[in-house]
Every structure is written in C-alpha cells, then in structure tokens.
Amino acid sequence: GGKGGKGGGGGGGGGAGAEGVDSEGMMKDWDGQMSKVLDGLSLQFAGIRAGNATPELVNEVKVKAYGNTVNLKEVGSITIKDTKTLAVTCWDAEVVKDAAAAIQNCGLGFSVSMADTAILVGVPELTMDKRKQYVKMAREHSEKAKVAMRNVRQSAMKKVKGLKESTSEDFVRSLEQEVEKLVKKNVGEVDQMMKKKDAELTKT
C-alpha cells in the first residue's frame, strides 16, 4: 500500500519561543514510526489472501526456534509446488517439527504433511466461512495497527506538552494540530487498506 504524501512539516508557530525546537524533525520521526506500522500491516495482509498458493501466505508465520520467535522465511526456503501446495525446506532439521506445528496452528487452515525434509503446506479452498474468518483476522491486524498509532500519538503529545516550558502556547497548539493531522492521515491509510483487503477477500 502506497503511503500518502508526507504530512507537511510542523509549520506555523514560528513566533517567540519556538527557537531551538526541531519540530520538523520530530514530525518526521513520528511519521516514520507510523509508516513502519503500515509496512508491518502490509506484510500481515499479504499473508491473508484468497486464491493460489504463494510464499507470502506463510512468510510471516511465527516459529519458536532457538529460544526465540522468528518468521518462517528466516528458518527455511519456501517454494510453490503447485497452485494449492507450498514446500517449506528448513535449513536446520531441528526446526522442522516446530515449523510444521506453527504453520498448522497459525489459524489460516493450512494442512501440513511431510515429504523427506520438506514440509508440504496445503492451501485450503476458500469457502464463504473461510473468507469471513480471513476478514476477521485482517480486521484484528488493522485494529492492532491503529492501537500502535495511537501509542505514537500519545508519546508525541506528551513530548509536545513538555515544550510548554520552553516555547509559546501558540507553538505548542499548532504542533498538537500537526500531530492530530498526521495521526488522522495514517489511521485513514489503515482504513483504506482494510477496505481493499475486505473487497479482495470477499469477491468471488
């Protein structure tokens, strides 16, 4: 999903007391944090899709390996065997069992079988129920993304309020408005992405 034009820098409030505050740098930083959230959501959405088997479906499946939680694509190569089957070849034999379990339990209805050292992943036919389940999953991801953005907003507002001591009231107010605009823009992006995903998942 393309990211809309970058929100204007923290303009305005150039009056007394605004010296020494890099409001533009701060806005860039907050916008960057929210862009990261959007990128993460794009990756999650790529794994929820109708249609043929593609590696994106399982790339981001979380596997417990080496005392850590990693993405499936970090422990093996994922190839397309046919339109309904993926083959996952783990680089380390010890991870195979955990990887297979992770794919089976990720909630996307994959069937898992073994072929030598490869894990064969069967992609389910998309029933109406399955589509609904996928939409629900996508919604959960988008709600989490919005929460992450609200957290960025919260820490941004805290920082802006802290400038009251060293800058003017007007400057703080204009910066608060900039933050609100930025949050609104990015939350709007999430809604757009969700709308698109919903349409993609429910069209037959």
UniProtKB/TrEMBL annotation:
Checking Gene3D superfamilies in the record gives: 3.30.1360.40, Ribosome-recycling factor
Q: Where is the composition biased (Gly residues)?
A: 1-18
Keywords carried by this UniProt record: Protein biosynthesis
Q: Where is the signal peptide?
A: none
An example GO CC term for this entry is:
mitochondrion
Q: Where is the Ribosome recycling factor domain?
A: 44-201
Q: Which family does it belong to?
A: Belongs to the RRF family.
Record's protein name: Ribosome recycling factor domain-containing protein
| Species assigned in the record | Zooxanthella nutricula
